[in-house]
Amino acid sequence: MSTNLSERMKKRLPVPYTDSLPEEIKSNLGKWADRKFHGGGIIEHISEKGDHLFTIKVGSPPNARFSSNTLRVFADIEDKFGIGTLRFTRSGNVEFISDSLEKSLLIKNEIEKMGFHAGGWRNSLWSIGSCTAYLSCTTAVADSSSITKVLYDQFGKYFTDEESIPAKLRISVAGCPTACGGLTSDIVVVGHYGDAPSFDPQKIGLCLPRSAKALEVAVPEVVMVCPMKCISAFKKDDDTVGIQINREKCIACGRCKDVCDYITFDTTKIGISILVGGKSSNTGRGQNLAMVLIPWIPISPPNYREVVAVLQKIIDMWKGNAVAGERLADYVRRIGLREFQKALDIPVTRWNNTEFVSSEFGIRQFPVR
Amino acid sequence: MTVNDKDIAISDKGAKILEYLESGKWPSHVTEIKKTKYPIRAYSSGLAIGETQWYGGSAKIRYVYTGFIARRTKDGKDSELHFRIYHPSGQFYRTEMLRKILDFSDEYGLGLIEVIGQTGGMIISMNPERADEAIDAIRNLGTDVGDTGDTYRDFASCVGPALCEYSLYDTLQARDHYMTYEPIYNNLSNQLFPFKVKLKFSGCPMDCARASHRADFGFIGTWEGSPDVDWGLLQDKIRKDDLKIERLIKECPSGAISENRESGGIKIDSEKCKKSMNCIRYAFPAIKPGKNRKVALLAGGNIKGRFGPKMGKPVSILDDYAQAKEFIMKIISIWEDGSPHKDRIGDMLFKSGFSKTVEAVSSSLPTEIEGHPTGQQRIIASAVLTDEEREGYSKWVDNIVKEYGE
Question: How far apart are CA B160 and CA B176, in angstroms?
Fold first, then answer.
């Protein structure tokens, strides 16, 4: 117990970062000169001093959730065959580090015995990022963790290079339109309500000021957060506050639900949207946000057969038509979202439409016939 | 059905779903969770009902205002509390340190760890009753809880110089530098902003830290001019058939590479180069990033903002990552003063006009970004001029008049 509790307000940061590095890396900081890919998730890092280090990339369970037991076994394996250092990548994979190819293969062997897989480099599936969803999130609509699990079961073959794909592929799955999984993946799956909200009339008061007098000086948060201005607050006869929701204008973003647990949705209309063409790397056609390919498809847990089938279709289409080394995002940008939708015969509505723009005037604004 | 029957039906359905999620080739999160003290009932009934069972809960830990999140289930039977722990830059863990964290997680928590959350921190599920003492325990391990609420979050960096040969500046040091920069450090505990603030550091244009999309202020390593070519090495690679010039030319997304027999194969047009890293990745180390290294600063990126997801916009090319401090603090103070709750910095810039706001405070930065002139000007065919402006135009027209004689 610290004697002075207010000390807790001064955060204790794990700095400098060099304290967490092993000697093998510290002495080669910034001196890496080349790398070699050995397949199956193993990379050799070669420093200008002639040192060699190997990283073995291991895929995590969905949402990067590990029990302390499993991580303890990982630490044992790393101590036995590696240099005693593990790294967690920003995409949620775990990297073991060792100093020889033989030991790296032993590590790979050990983790495979545990049911884990190594892979995810070069032309393969690098990761399926997932948010927390039903595991601890209050705003989740669909359970991204279980969607991620079935997607990994199906597409793990691209992670381990069992089957080849034209280029790197990144998928992210988010349980709600907040899209904590990010929108710069080649394929983005986002759970959403597919409908406008209503509210629990008994409990909504907990999210509103008690007296209508408050409306004269401030806007309730649940009203304020709506980006479409479709929630309004009014004074009720008994001087309390009520709200009204304009369902026509709603985009089902769920921000009202973010700030108030008593906004409710019809759960039978829950579905997912699928976006394609996102990329966080400046390679190829550059960085870009993903675009809405399909605004809604139904989901059926626990096998989510619709999501799996549609993603397989998208990947097959990419595999069949991409130039070697062309990422899905670059392929979609090259042919255009509209063409991609046409090729898959996807119904186009106002939610996944792409607008035509022209910087010209007069007759030149019309398509050439 | 009685209430009890309904509960049993949900629990049966949930158990079946869990069983399904434990099958299959990929390691299952359910299998991992079952090895821990996490209340799996909350998850399984969520899956059975098709709705998350968690509501926002509340917890109080003395003198700790960021870094933990409390939840309770809708039926009030379970509660959960998790810590978000700062990673060291680069997320490297000596096994000795990792074991200490695992022991911590078993002793004070549920033994369940999300090794890296989407926000960047390590997430450890806790036992709510021991949360208070756990704070001191985690602080004794040399790290702390943080990374929640309307304040500075856990900044992120790519692996940088620790393992990557492309890294153009020390991204790990940069993260440490900003985390410990006093005006930022002093406020890690205070939720004083309209929403969260994130900084991310990527060492090269491949942007592994996703600095352009997921950070309010993104730093991306870059260089000026064309990539640096080692002609001898390049010739070697060509001779050994390791590398095909045609492929180098054809695959350059910027169209900046052309054939040039005199200089040894190729010519790279620095004006065209968009830093896609294509030739560098193909021909490394014969082609490397240019020697004149810089850091590109972007602002306003986010996923979660009032006006939806945004990519960061260009602010300046810095000589050094530390140059952005004054700019960042000025932008934050404008945002803090005028923005409603849940508006990200990107939203503020979007509303107030990106270039107008950035220009007003960017005097501390080395270069200003020149965009393309728009083809469609905002047209006001009349003007209210200052005396100075009037004088400028008069002078110009006088010259024209002189040129053509009175």
Answer: 13
